[in-house]
């Protein structure tokens, strides 16, 4: 059971009494009559063959307040797309599967490339971006939730608690970030959030001084959570990164576009576990190593837009300050684990801190060497201005794929 403490400048909606799911779903059904809801699921085909997604589909089949479910399918050939359509048939809602590697959506992507508007790299960010474009194109929903497809501890209460703040017509929230304790199988997980993001934010505060943006990011209990919800009008002008900076980038865009009282975070699960990335200490282009570089660059870019001037000496100071703060956090988390009867390997934790410290410097070098890097995917407002009718074309392509292969 969570406490009621409000930390930072973002409203926290706690799970104080384990409210019955049926009562919350009954309210959501009422909300759906005036504020239709959608769910976006960015998925790799390989996740259809895992343990998590079959259970997610089973749980979602019991949800009756969603207007539509939009599934973005990556890394799938034609046979795998057909199999995906069968896989998702147990869903009782109106669902659409975007075959991102199919010829119709590839042709649309080529039109975007010709205008310099296509996502720069494949990945979750690109998948989410196309799904959000389809949500705009379908025009059926006013509130949207998004969560990952590898949550092995999933039950439908997660969705209810996630979408409730933006679905309730009496609330004024435009965006809700989910949070949870990353504890599973007797261990504390979430290394990148615990050992990179939080100590790096504290180090940036110490070396650069006070910035409202740093207070804002530091207010989120789990800034890297892949679960969030929003009003549909958020989609039109948000720019999201195509790399591992997706979650930080989304929070940064909300900070740019909305007042803090229009943003909240909600406790959505008592336990949460999903697929874990390797540390990949030997390869900076994979796993948590690449993730730490992309996230660090996302923070540096945002601070630069706020007027911060970086140089090599600045990044060396940030790295040294981060390293000391992060090592202190290792002791804190170890003590927390012991009190709760959990395991935490100090050696592996400090190895992660050492890698993240090196990668903060690497991220700084890459930032200085390529200050004109454009990691953000253009907003849908810009895309529709450059290519009028593109949303209708996306809608038609998805409908045609579903009709031809279902």
TrEMBL record:
GO terms, molecular function: transferase activity
Which superkingdom is the protein from? Bacteria
Do you know which InterPro entries this protein is assigned to?
Answer: Nucleotide-diphossugar_trans (IPR029044)
The entry's keywords: Transferase
Per the record's keyword annotation, is Transferase included, yes or no? yes
Instruction: Spell out the SUPFAM superfamilies in the cross-references.
Output: Nucleotide-diphospho-sugar transferases
What's the name of the protein? A-glycosyltransferase-like protein
Species whose genome carries this gene? Saccharophagus degradans (strain 2-40 / ATCC 43961 / DSM 17024)
From which lineage does this chain's organism come?
A: Bacteria, Pseudomonadati, Pseudomonadota, Gammaproteobacteria, Cellvibrionales
């Amino acid at each position: 059971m969570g406490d009621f403490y409000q930390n930072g400048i973002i409203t926290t909606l706690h799970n104080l009494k384990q409210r019955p799911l049926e009562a919350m779903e009954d309210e959501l059904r009422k909300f759906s009559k005036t504020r239709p809801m959608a769910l976006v699921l960015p998925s790799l085909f390989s996740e259809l063959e895992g343990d998590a997604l079959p259970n997610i589909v089973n749980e979602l089949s019991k949800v009756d307040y969603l207007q539509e479910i939009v599934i973005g399918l990556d890394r799938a050939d034609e046979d795998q797309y057909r199999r995906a359509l069968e896989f998702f048939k147990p869903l009782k809602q109106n669902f659409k599967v975007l075959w991102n590697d199919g010829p119709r959506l590839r042709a649309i992507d080529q039109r975007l490339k010709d205008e310099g508007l296509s996502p720069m790299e494949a990945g979750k960010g690109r998948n989410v971006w196309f799904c959000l474009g389809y949500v705009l194109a379908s025009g059926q929903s006013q509130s949207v939730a998004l969560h990952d497809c590898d949550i092995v501890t999933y039950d439908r209460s997660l969705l209810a608690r996630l979408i409730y703040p933006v679905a309730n017509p009496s609330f004024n929230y435009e965006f809700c970030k989910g949070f949870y304790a990353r504890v599973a199988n007797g261990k504390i997980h979430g290394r990148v959030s615990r050992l990179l993001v939080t100590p790096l934010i504290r180090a940036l505060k110490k070396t650069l001084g006070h910035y409202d943006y740093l207070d804002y990011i530091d207010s989120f209990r789990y800034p890297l959570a892949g679960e969030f919800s929003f009003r549909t009008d958020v989609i039109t002008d948000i720019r999201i990164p195509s790399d591992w900076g997706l979650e930080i980038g989304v929070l940064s865009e909300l900070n740019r576009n909305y007042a803090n009282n229009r943003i909240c975070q909600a406790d959505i699960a008592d336990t949460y576990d999903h697929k874990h990335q390797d540390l990949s200490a030997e390869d900076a282009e994979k796993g948590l190593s690449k993730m730490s570089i992309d996230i660090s660059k996302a923070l540096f870019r945002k601070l630069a837009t706020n007027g911060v001037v970086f140089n090599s000496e600045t990044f060396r100071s940030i790295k040294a300050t981060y390293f000391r703060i992060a090592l202190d956090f290792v002791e804190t988390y170890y003590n927390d684990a012991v009190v709760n009867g959990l395991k935490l390997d100090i050696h592996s934790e400090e190895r992660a801190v050492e890698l993240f410290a090196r990668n903060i410097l690497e991220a700084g070098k890459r930032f200085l060497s390529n200050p004109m890097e454009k990691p953000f995917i253009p907003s849908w407002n810009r895309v529709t201005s450059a290519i009028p009718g593109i949303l209708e074309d996306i809608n038609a392509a998805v409908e045609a794929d579903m009709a031809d292969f279902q």
